[in-house]
Amino acid sequence: MALTELLNLAMETHNMYEASDEDIFTAVMDAKKVREMNTEGDEVSNDLAVPAELGPTCKEALQASLLLQEFVSDMDSPFACNLEVMLCSFGHRTRVLSMQGMENSKITDYFTRE
Cα separation of 59 and 66, whole Å? Predict the structure, then answer.
């Protein structure tokens, strides 16, 4: 399957041309209602609410990065080398950010004197 077929499925393209002005108006007005309700802080009714999907966790992102690094390590092309460097930078940057969020502590903080 070509990239253009994945991005513009024939069924979606077919349905897009069959949409009437009234359908387009209704979709735009529904989207406007949802946006206004979200900016006002009111609860969005269930029929207009779009479920929020959580993104991957930091651990999952690092695992994906390591998996891609293993896959790319055997390739010998400029793109593969650039991708490997970018994935390494991503891993280092992610670890640095997590370490910056930590608080300094002393070993004596964990023990009490008697």
Answer: 11
